[in-house]
Design goal:
binds nicotinamide-adenine-dinucleotide, 2 domains, 6-stranded parallel sheet, two-stranded antiparallel sheet, 8 strands, 387 residues, binds fe (ii) ion
């Protein structure tokens, strides 16, 4: 057996309905008083955002806001955010939003003080370019409050997925010494999320758990976390989208999403994510939707290697068909319950775009931990099947 490396670092998490009111105390504990709220235009209009700003201002915090962030966020979004942060002279960042806002907030916190180029932090592309920074002074202190249950970005350290507009590709930046000082996971903030986004983001969480579990490293610690995340999705994803009372299901999905990120941060992801990153950068397709459409096709492609693991999953969930194929059939059935399309064609991908998507997916770093070694031709094969 090769030597494996297990590292799990999780910041302080405050979890539960109503927990957003603890933001104030968590900032005070750090001696911070001039936070910049980093969010997106949609989340900015939510009543919970207005209530948070009002609570902080009533307690004499000087709150600035940056919300010029698109879905599948870009380096330009980050650069503008850093300008805002510097001109507001903020002492901290509160990331409030889905993965897009959280990732921009993380990227801002990585570079705003030390003024390094964000792309030097692409550790998985080239570990040698990682700036030698360790003091907390080098990074802007950050707390994270997710408003979607999918990316788990609140528990993936400082890792952020940002589109490089020059290369036309998504890239992952991160620094191993930088973490949020606190995470607040308040499921009440998920209630305003429209059904389709609840479904797409939930499928992102499930994809994280499955890809992390199937990643080849020997890491029973993170495998255990990934299995629990799959179970939570099995029991609650459909409920979180289709129930009349949304809070119970969305609470469980918030937990599933957060813990799945702990598993993938240590073990890695796979080819589903490489394709989703390509579809996000090139066609601006929502990340969770892209994963959801492609997931069963990649599982079938990987089947010769991962059949024992999928069989174990089918048994743990006590599926009617306790085989690897039964597990994939469950995913396909779940997608139907969530009104998620079955093909790339249905999400407006054009056949002539497939070679470019394959090339971009191959350049992406997430497939380094795919159970089957990927080539550009393998990606094109999967994409044609998924079309
Ligand atoms: N860093 C990581 O570990 C990681 C992991 C997976 C994905 N990602 C990235 O995350 C991004 C996707 O994030 P996402 O899926 O959370 O979507 P998102 O952040 O793009 O948000 C999608 C939409 O939902 C709206 N929204 C968010 N919360 C809401 C709420 N509570 N009520 C109403 N509307 C709400 C937003 O305004 C936006 O219009 C992608 O860029 C992806 O690459 C990052
Ligand atoms: Fe993801």
């Amino acid at each position: 057996m090769t030597i494996s490396h297990w590292q799990v670092t999780v910041p302080d998490v405050t979890f539960g309905p109503g927990s957003v009111k603890h933001t104030l105390d968590l900032l005070k504990q750090q001696g911070l008083s001039r936070p910049m709220l980093v969010t997106d235009a949609g989340v900015l209009t939510q009543p919970f955002t207005k209530a948070l700003i009002a609570q902080l201002e009533a307690n004499h915090f000087l709150v600035s806001t940056f919300s010029e962030i698109k879905g599948n966020p870009t380096k330009s979004n980050v650069d503008l955010g850093v300008e805002y942060l510097q001109s507001a002279n903020s002492d901290s960042i509160i990331a409030l939003g889905g993965g897009s806002a959280i990732d921009v907030a993380k990227a801002m916190s990585l570079v705003a003080r030390n003024k390094k180029d964000l792309w030097l932090f692409c550790y998985f592309e080239d570990p040698d370019t990682l700036p030698q920074l360790s003091a907390s002074d080098d990074f802007v202190p950050m707390m994270i409050i997710p408003t979607t249950a999918g990316t788990g970005s609140e528990l993936s350290g400082s890792s952020c997925v940002i589109t490089d507009e020059v290369r036309g590709q998504k890239r992952v930046a991160y620094h191993p010494s930088h973490f949020p000082f606190a995470v607040i996971a308040d499921p009440e903030l998920l209630i305003s999320l429209p059904k389709h986004l609840s479904a797409w983001t939930g499928m992102d969480a499930l994809t994280h758990a499955i890809e992390a579990y199937c990643a080849p490293d020997f890491n029973p610690l993170c495998d255990g976390i990934a299995l629990e995340a799959v179970r939570l999705c099995y029991e609650h994803l459909s409920e979180s989208v289709n129930s009349i009372d949304l809070l119970p299901g969305r609470t469980q999905m918030m937990a599933a999403s957060s813990i799945a990120a702990v598993a993938f941060t240590s073990k890695g992801l796979g080819a589903v994510h490489s394709i989703a990153h390509a579809l996000g950068a090139l066609l601006d397709i929502h990340h969770g939707l892209a994963n959801a459409v492609v997931l069963p096709y990649v599982l079938k492609f990987n089947l010769s290697v991962i059949a024992p693991k999928l069989t174990r999953l089918a048994n743990l969930l006590a599926l009617p068909d306790r085989t690897a194929k039964g597990f994939i059939a469950w995913i396909e059935e779940l997608r139907q319950q969530l009104a998620i399309p079955n093909t790339l064609k249905e999400i407006h991908v054009k056949p002539e775009q497939l070679p470019h998507i394959a090339a971009l997916a191959y350049k992406d770093t997430e497939h380094q931990t795919n159970p089957v070694t990927m080539s550009e031709a393998n990606f094109l094969h999967i994409l044609k099947t998924a079309f």
